[in-house]
Amino acid sequence: MLENAKSDSFKVIYFLAHDRIAREVAHQILIVDELQKYNKQIIINAEEYVNKPDEKLSLTVFGAVADFERAKIMERMRRGNTHGRDRLKRCHNSQVATHLLEDKVFEMIRG
């Protein structure tokens, strides 16, 4: 995209949301600055982005919130995977214990 921004292959770029520009806030700001350097019109969520302090603040805040949401999702996934592994271990251990108990009972019956 930035390679094409240097040429006249497009004049307007549309982003569905602030967090679709880049994954990290710092990269969002760099990309927007680069696009503005080449006089590209930026549309974010159907509104034109204008280089004003309040626009830059909203870009930063929305990007930070999206960053936070991604981190929380990853944390929940890790916790869920850990919980699933622990549950599987407990299930496996209880099956092993049940099998050992059945063996003892059979030995007592044969006994």
The CATH topology: Rossmann fold
Question: What number of domains?
Answer: 1
Give the tally of β-strands.
Answer: 3
Largest sheet: 3 strands, mixed
Give the strand order, joined by hyphens, for the main sheet: 1-2-3
* Regions with little confidence, pLDDT below 50 for 5+ residues: none
Give the SSE order as H and E letters.
HEHEEH
Q: Which structural class is indicated by helix and strand composition?
A: mainly alpha
Overall average residue pLDDT: 82
Radius of gyration: 28 Å
Q: Percent of residues in helical segments?
A: 55-70%
Strand content: 5-15%
How does this model look, in words?
The protein has helices at 2-5, 25-37, 53-110; strands at 12-15, 41-44, 47-49. The protein is mainly α. The chain has a 3-stranded mixed beta sheet with strand order 1-2-3, with helices on one face. The longest helix has 58 residues, at 53-110. The chain starts with a helix and ends with a helix. The mean pLDDT is 82.
